[in-house]
Amino acid sequence: MAAWTMSRTLCARRVTCRVASLARLVALAWVIALPVQAAEKTPSDFGIPEVRVINDALRAGWADARLEPSAAATDGEWCRRVYLDLVGRIPTLAELDAFTKDSTADKKQVLVDRLLGDEYVDEFARSWTDVWTTILIGRDTDNEMVSRPGMRQYLRRALSKNASYDEFVRELVTASGTNAPGASNFNGATNFLCGKMEDNGIQAAARTAQVFLGMQVQCTQCHNHPFNKGKQNQFWEFNAFFRQTRALRRFDGGNDVSSVELVDQDFAGEGGDPEEAEIYYELRNGLTKVAYPVFVDGAEISKSGYLPGTMSDGTPYGVNRRHELAEMMVASPLLSRAIVNRLWGHFFGYGFTKPVDDLGEHNAPTHPELLDTLAEALVEASFDTKELMRWIVLSEAYGLSSRTTRGNSADDPAMGERPMFSHFYLRQMTAEQLYESLLTATRADLTGDAEERARLKDEWLGQFVIAFGTDDGADSTTFNGSIPQVLMMFNGPLIKAATETGKGGFLDSVATSSMSNPQKIDLLYRAALARQPTRREVTVANALVGAREGDVTAALQDVWWAVLNSNEFIINH
Amino acid sequence: MPITPITSVPDGMNRRHFMSHLAGAAALAAPATAFTNTLLANAPDMQKRHKAAILLWMGGGPSTMDIWDLKPGAATGGPFKQISTSADGIAISEHMPLMAQQMHQMAIVRSMSTREADHMRGRYYMHTGYVPNPNVEHPSYGAVIAHELAAQVPSLEIPPFVSVGGGSVGPGFLGMTWAPFVVDSSGRVRNLDMGIDQTRVNQRLEMLATIEKRFIGEERGGSARDHAKVLDRTIKLMTSDQMQAFKVDQEPEEVRERYGTTGFGRGCLMARRLVEQGVPFVEVDLGGWDNHQGIFPTLADNKLPELDKAMSALVEDLVQRGLYDDTAVIWMGEFSRTPNINGDGGRDHWARSWSVVVGGAGFRRGVVVGETSSDGKEVVTEPYSSQDVMASVLKSLGISLETTFTATNGRPMKIANAGRVIQDLFA
To answer: Which of A482, A540, A542, A571 would best serve as a mutation to test chain B binding (most B beta carbons within 10 A)?
Structure first.
């Protein structure tokens, strides 16, 4: 009953006010705190109000749904997941030991601060460059309109300097210049749109709305949306923002495209009047309609197709449609909600909605108040997404074990339930996380050029990518837990390299160390799984040493192969 | 040391069979010859007739009014002429001359009318019979048919759902065991060889099973067990002689020529070989139909000749080898293209009136079902949906339409989304 009253209170609050201050956040935390006083012990919020908001909101949800949260994850488990989720790889042995042996109360906070700070800035940028590259341009490496090195260069820089999210979106949406590094007027941010300008920028409109505003508008290109308020005119009004923009191919002297230049030009309009540059679209009944740039909330801008300029008498004219669009996007509550939902999904495996980039009215979020509160808090924090990451990974729910109990096994989004986050949800590592984790586990030499490393990784990823060759640039991956992935993990060159026994390599250095055999096996387990082997596992491993007739290196190779191929290794748990 | 499989209940094979795979691990020294033995023992089983389906998936949305339902003379009709075929009264595009000789084996449904004109949504809908739903992932044709028919060939060691040249759509709530095995049209399967002797392979697998089972036992969720199930399937496939079915290069050159030396040609030939081996479902992808610009030269010079050669050779071979009566062939894409020709000489996405083609198994042959208006913009007879096609395909294979699955969320889901059988496709 108390919980019901509370959610009513929150609903009322959401309707009446949109802008939150920190003080109000704290007040909200008080309101939510009431029904959970009976719960066992209050989880640490590390003195961060937003963490407390998350803890209290999720606890209220558990009380409502009569779910008992799982126990806390072990230090090893938590350490492994926070490295995977923040810097895209498992921890090294040294990193793991430093954390598990630390007995100070605030060690989680200290580790998170370090992972988000200067010490790990290159690794953070590398990992999130992988994440954003996939979001912005997909995994297809075979598209002449897109320069992956250009995209990555932009992302690495933006992420290294921790560009605020509003600035990041502005740069991507308004980018002009040439997409490939080394070309004159280079601007890697253009790669988001360069490959989406065909057919009057239909994909530019669809993907911009989907990625940044959580609106799936692609269907309304042809008809009104059957389930929500999406209307066909809205799609074309949004598309109209991209009509001054052209993606021009630059050739290398032959037939190959060497780069693509994204430029803004005066737009004459399909009616031929640049003062009122209109576009046309067709209704399903064959009637033709007119559209001008109108934002999703109904805000209109000048209908002029001219870019900004000044007449001889000094009167300004014209408008840059993409610049206007970017400003309206960053001011929209949809933007902050969309990024909160996306990042929540990154850390928890499930967003407040599924899919994470569909926040339309037909797709109600699981925790609407929390989503709104975090979105507002992110705006308050000047769109610093590292702050949002900090709040999420320090929350109680992120720290729960993935082992389910009788009290919460029903909370299983893989079974179609709405996620309540009462335990940590298993998910397979991404291909990029696996690649980087194998390098980490085998102590590969990671010095060297970041782009060269990214190129090698792309080459490896290529074996899993299937491009559909359609206008939406969609692709899928066989790195999805199916047989080709298992074959790669069994026998692929990457695993062959990770398990090689040559002099001076990882296994050789373990085998020839002064440790006892059980200690060597123990080390392999901690390096890959962040835990020690069970007694039974040691027994089976020792049998292997026997089977290899005392060739310890070969036996360790067998153990290592098995460990790296296990569900426990490839699943983030 | 007792040996148990990685998954406690091995999927698709009996327990003794599975144990023989891991026998080497038990003794840690025994020779591992189990694989070849079981193959030979099951050879007679291969002779038995079994049902199968081949889906020719046209990714991107092919313009069916330029292929199967021409409108010569209409403003929307485009430049292609129609030609008569081996089926009485049925005419198709002039750029499909080889298929024209096979139309007495096929049935065209010209009255498809669907609502999904976005690639992702259309691909999902046409593959599953369901529109995308955030709370449940539905199984695709391949997963459903493999699930229903896999038991008929117990000796099958390669995956029962193979997708050639494309990713198809996943198994949804049926689980990763029924995921498509994706290969490219070269038929080369990567990473098959571990490069060490079988005894040592088995010993490694014993170590792996120990870790795997411990983690499953901790009840962290279904994906831990799914991983183990896929391991079992992979182990089975790695040393199977049945993998020869993927090797289209073993076919005589004249046969390969007849299918066409294209990716799709090789894929269709591979589909025939896989069905002969006992695989119940093969999807072969031909992309490149998203023709927003310059559609007519693309179709005439490129897409239709490639399609025509491979599809006609496949049907001809299936008939000639006595497989056609048990093998359904389905040709479709996610939608079709606008009757109106756009300013770039292309056609855009269109789902309202279009065609799919089926043949073989229990389907009536040499017929057309349904009709579109003279400009191709409307279906003027009873319209059919994705689920209706799916129900009809299942019926042609003798799969009961009363079958009900339990989705992961516990809800009962009728096979093919309770689609209605298209009665005119059956005698």
So the answer is: A482
Percent of chain A with pLDDT over 70: 91
Rounded distance between C-alpha atoms, residue B266 and residue B281, angstroms: 17
**Residue B195 with chain A: CB contacts under 8 Å:** 491, 496
pLDDT at position B133 is 81
Long-range CB contacts (< 8 A, 24+ apart) of B316-319? B316/B102, B317/B272, B318/B272, B318/B275, B318/B360, B319/B105
d(CA A198, CA A244): 13
- DSSP annotation string for B344-356: TS---EE-SSEEE
Whether the CB-CB separation of A410 and B221 falls below 8 Å is answered with no
Domain assignment present for A157 = no
Tell me: do A199 and A294 sit in the same domain: yes
Question: Would you say residue A420 lies in a domain?
Answer: yes
Give me B393's structure tokens.
Answer: 């395909």
Query: Quick one: how many helices (H) and strands (E) in chain A?
Result: 25, 11
pLDDT at position A21 is 47
Query: In chain B, what residues touch A573 (CB-CB under 8 Å)?
Result: 220
- Grouping H, G, I as helix, E, B as strand and the rest as coil, residue A479 is coil
Separation CA A343–CA A336 (nearest Å): 11
With beta carbons less than 8 A apart as the criterion, state whether B166 and B283 touch.
Answer: yes
State the SS3 of B30-50.
Answer: CCCCHHHHHHHHCHHHHHCCC
The tokens describing A159, both together, are 């992420």
Could you give the domains of chain B? 1-41+197-239 (no CATH), 51-187+247-425 (3.40.720.10)
Q: Do A487 and B408 touch (CB under 8 A)?
A: no
Are A390 and A439 members of one domain? no
Interchain contact, B135 vs A546, CB within 8 Å: no
A134 part of a folded domain: no
Mutate to test the interface with B, among A567, A571, A572 (most CBs of B within 10 A): A567
The amino acid present at B239, given as its one-letter code, is: T
pLDDT of amino acid B15: 34
Q: What is the pLDDT of residue A228?
A: 53
b vs e for A530-544, b when ≥16 Cβ sit within 10 Å of the residue's Cβ? Answer: bbebeeebbebbebb
pLDDT in tens, B99-149: 999 999 999 999 999 999 989 899 999 999 999 887 788 999 999 999 999
Ramachandran angles phi, psi of A322, nearest 5°: -70, -35
Check whether residue A238 and residue A268 sit in a common domain: yes
CATH number, domain with residue A470: 1.10.3130
Cβ neighbours, 10 Å, residue A207: 24
Residue A97 belongs to a domain: no
The enclosing H or E element of A483 equals helix A483-491
Using the 3D structure, point to which of A425, A450, A476 is the last residue of a domain.
Answer: A425
Closest by Cβ to A544, choosing from B173, B207, B411: B207
Domain span holding position A406: 2-72+333-425
Question: For chain A, what percent of residues have pLDDT higher than 90?
Answer: 73
Question: Do A188 and A60 share a domain, yes or no?
Answer: no
- Check residue B9 and give its pLDDT: 36
Given this model, what pLDDT does residue B427 score? 87
Judgement on whether residues A178 and A320 belong to the same structural domain of the protein: yes
- From chain A, the residues in CB contact with B408 under 8 A are 414-416
Both A250 and A185 in one domain: the answer is yes
* CA torsion through residues B343, B345, B350, B354, sign: positive
Same domain, A296 and A338: no
Q: Give residue B7's pLDDT.
A: 57
- Provide the pLDDT for residue B21: 38
Count of domains in chain A? 3
A352 and A299 in a common domain: no
Q: What is each CA distance from A509 to A345, A546, B77, B112, B215, in whole angstroms?
A: 39, 20, 72, 65, 28
Distance CA A269, CA A338 (A): 32
